[in-house]
Amino acid sequence: MKKLINNVEDVVAESLEGFLMANRRTHQQVAGVNGLVVNDINKKKVSVITGGGSGHEPVFIGLTGEGMADGAALGSVFASPDPHTILEVIKGANTDEGVLCLVINYAGDTMNFGVASELAELEGINVATALVTDDVASAPKGQEEERRGIAGLLLVTKVTGAAAQEGYTLTETKQVAEKANENIRSLSVALTPCSLPGSKANFTIEEDAYEFGMGIHGEPGIQKKKLQAADKIVEEMVTVIADDLELQEADEVVVLVNGTGATSLLELNIVHRQVGKLMENKGVVIYDSIIGSHCTSLEMAGVSISMLRLDAELKRLYNAPAYTPYFYKRGEQT
Fold first, then answer.
1. Same domain? 146 vs 23
2. Within 10 Å of residue 246's Cβ, how many Cβ atoms?
3. Distance between CA 249 and CA 215 in Å, rounded?
4. Per-residue pLDDT for the chain (334 aa), expressed as one digit of tens each?
5. Domain ends where: 151, 182, 213?
6. What is the domain extent for residue 29?
7. To bridge 195 with a disulfide, which of 1, 106, 275, 296 should be the other Cys (CB 3.0-4.6 Å)?
């Protein structure tokens, strides 16, 4: 499939170079690897880093900035960053209070972040890890620790970065990340496939069908279904999420309606319209909404819905101001 690239081997490095040209006042590359850290890291707070395969932009580089993550390690398209890259980002982001790694739960990512963390500890760096496991389609209820991490990473990073900014210790920051993850559920649907640079489409979906529960790398969903009206698809998605999260009347949630790469804002707003109606019918309060393409799968058409259930602490941390090149929060909502 056609893409605006030069050489396949250079897409990650050149994309990172372009990002850094646009954001040189706030971000810098970690020497020798495809990774970055924010400028002027506060050495008196816990540093938060993340990372994973490329092709999901603006995740992961788009999570770096004020009140969010302090660094990101990038792998090849749909492939985990290697331990050396992660180690160099950990070292580049290290502070007096240590480094927390937020890792989406895929085998390569957890393995390589684990190796890098062990190597960092050998160099005297205090490192902890929190996994993101928000994808309800990837494992049944009761096996949440086996679930994949997807777009909910944005919400975990938001509250975790705020906790670090507030001066939480490394242990406390990890606990907040885990608490946020326990209160987030996400589900995706795909309408079309995507293709790695230089390759054909990595799976097929018939013109009159969609994949319910698709993973961000094209992993098969729960079921391939006949295409139907948006409201019906969203109702199915919300029902699964709300049931798994065990939402109760008067619960407050943050809703993330996330495009997977080729989905227009016109469509995403239609999705959110139905989410809002369904939550109102359930008596669940949408405290805030985020609508946009934040965790993508190259040019895949589709959408994911994420919900973060709030308590007093998570609400305060969510409300804290944040700024990255692709996401910001003004911080004054009450």
1. yes
2. 10
3. 30
4. 789 999 999 999 999 999 999 999 999 999 999 999 999 999 999 999 999 999 999 999 999 999 999 999 999 999 999 999 999 999 999 999 999 999 999 999 999 999 999 999 999 999 999 999 999 999 999 999 999 999 999 999 999 999 999 999 999 999 999 999 999 999 999 999 999 998 888 788 999 999 999 999 988 888 999 999 999 999 999 999 999 999 999 999 999 999 999 999 999 999 999 999 999 999 999 999 999 999 999 999 999 999 999 999 999 999 999 999 999 999 765 5
5. 182
6. 8-182
7. 1
C-alpha–C-alpha distance, residues 329 and 299, integer Å = 27
Token output for 305: 């819905």
Catalytic residue positions? 56, 217
Edge-to-edge order in the sheet of strand 27-29: 27-29, 35-38, 71-77, 47-54, 99-104, 127-132
Residue 256 is assigned to a structural domain of this protein: yes
